[in-house]
Amino acid sequence: MTPVLHPVALVGAGPGDPELLTLRALRRLQAADVVLSDDLVDARVLALIGPQTRLLRVGKRGGCISTDQRFIEELMVREARAGRRVVRLKGGDPFVFGRGGEEADALRAAGLAVEVVSGLTAGIAGPAAAGIPVTDRRCTPGVALVTGHSGEGGRAPDWAALARSGLTLVVYMGVARCEQIVAALREGGMCGDMPVAVVAAAHTERQQQALSTLDGLCALLAREPGLGSPAVLVIGEVGALGAWASAQAEAAHQLRQA
Ligand code: SAH
Question: Are residues 134 and 236 in the same domain?
């Protein structure tokens, strides 16, 4: 007898803290027969998966090679065709970087239905955890989410156009490419004193944030290895509105009171 096929759920795990999962994400995780999880998914989110569910960690930090990707897609197809409820769990939002679109295409090409369960993306929830509103209208008309590492087959951002755009730039996977990104933005005309916030491991127990400038960024990252991956760079005036701004205001207030 042919089994009843369930849609494969591409589920966003959010940036870390399980409290930031959507209710739908939690339901899909708890009903799953098999979960294929990325590396970046927080252990506290994985702990919500029931003991009857098979958890497969299929992450591949950094250099993604296409055979791995094909293997993951084939595994999902095989499990779903056997009638199992499959969840593909990804850090943040499944459609913001991280190849969610490619996986959805592969599943549909195999004749399977796909359900996308959106999650909070690190590029918005991460800065927010440091008190940074990425589209604050006092500073910017909007935000661009860009990759610092376009990888094989991806298009590199037009840094000069971004430098002139006046948008907040939230750079994912940018720490290792700091030198090239800063040089390209400077060449595009961005000021060296533009605020840059780094938010690392946002919404996890290891969260760290720091404020720098475009010209000071690479030295800061070299000095503070804890600000490394996973981290987002927030390049733009909004960086200066972070929690440090209220900390400074508070310190100034206390000085005045003293
Ligand atoms: N789909 C994910 C992004 C995957 S790309 C999302 O929507 O968030 C991986 C990159 O995301 C990392 O290199 C880093 O730039 C960023 N990232 C993921 N989790 C993060 C976190 N908790 N804090 C800061 N940046 C994070």
Answer: yes
Angle at 65 between CA 64 and CA 71, to 5 degrees: 105
| Whether 113 and 192 share a structural domain | no
**Which residues make Cβ contacts (< 8 Å) with residue 4, sequence separation at least 6?**
83
DSSP 3-state assignment of 113?
Answer: coil
Q: Is 90 a catalytic residue?
A: no
Q: How far is the CA of 172 from the centre of ligand 1 (A)?
A: 6
Residues 147 and 220 in one domain: yes
Residues 146-179: pLDDT tens digits? Answer: 999 877 778 899 999 999 999 999 999 999 999 9
CA of 41 from ligand 1 middle (Å) equals: 10
Q: Give me the domain span that covers residue 102.
A: 8-117
**pTM exceeding 0.90:** yes
3-class DSSP assignment, residue 94: coil
The number of folded domains in the chain is 2
Q: Which amino acid is at 171?
A: V
